[in-house]
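Protocol step 4 of 5: obtain the predicted structure for the target chain.
Materials: sequence only (see below). No template structures provided, no constraints applied. The aim of this step is simply to have a reference model before the mutagenesis design in step 5. Sequence pasted as it appears in the construct record:
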Amino acid sequence: MGTNKVLVAGLSGVVGYATAQQFAADPSWQVVGLSRRKPDRLGRIDHIPLDLADPQACAEALGSLQGVTHLVYAALFEKPGLIPGWYERDQMETNLAYFRNLMEPLTRANPGLRHVTLLQGTKAYGAHIAPMRAPAREREPRHQHENFYWLQEDDLRQRHAAAGGSWSWTIVRPQIVFGEALGSNMNALPALGVYAALLRKDGEPLHYPGGARNISEAVDADLVGRAIKWAAESPAAANEIFNITNGDVFSLRNLWPAIADAFGMPEGEERPLSLASAMPAREPDWAALVSRFGLSAPTSLDAFVGQSFVYADAISGFGSTEASPPSIVSTIKIRQAGFHDCVDTEDMFRRLIARFQDLGLFPPRGW
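Step 4 output (structure tokens):
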């Protein structure tokens, strides 16, 4: 067992799960993950069940956790309905409380802490408020809007200063993330898989449910994990903020033929449909498919998809007839710092869909 011990908060989330797996693949790292529910397929990751909303439980669990050298904070609280909560102060304060509930006991019990990674995202550039400058760069002044990112970042900087810089930090800002996690609030892949399976069951091709062809950037959760692992020990990442994307741009509508092919389905028409409104009523049909194919996926759509039907609607441009301004960030900074990895977004969709099929989370291709 190695001398490095990383604690990943938010293990059940799309970034937390992928990041923990990246560390666990390296035998020089000991990996511990925190989450309320225990994900499947953890391998050599140790899981601690913990609700970050409970300060007493955090004090007990983290106050006795010794030898942590690195922290990856990827935990996130989202309200029902997902998007409205992004603007609400109480959700921001809750996310700050979660962060503090972890940091207070962890830093006291682990004087050997060397590095903290904090997760943000494109909302740092006000992408959810107004058209963002393209490409958005990390050196821009802080966008003036209320955001839990700023609350957590300010708390992180204050703790860093109080510790005399004995540990360093890195903030990563991924764009739209796709990965293997289940029940996540912002992982559209299970949502698209359920939609495709139900259309197949109905004898339909894969119709495009969205609207305008918005241009944005995606990032493979595994790529984010590799970037976080790099940042954990790279001097060039110390006390820096980095955007991270696959390295290309994408429109979900333009990738639809490749996505349909990955599911083994013909491409259909443009038929706008709110997945958030339509899919929950079809949970019995999904449960029947799980039974028919002996899938390992949950029969509960909430357990499988979380609130990602809402997220999929947003990504697909449902309800919009005109394309939004491009949501593009620069990744020059992280490349110049030494992280050069990249992923083709079409290849990412094909790989992840095949992975879900192989794991029995989606019906087999072309059934």
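Step 4 remarks: The mean pLDDT is 95. The first strand starts at residue 4 and ends at 9.
Proceed to step 5.
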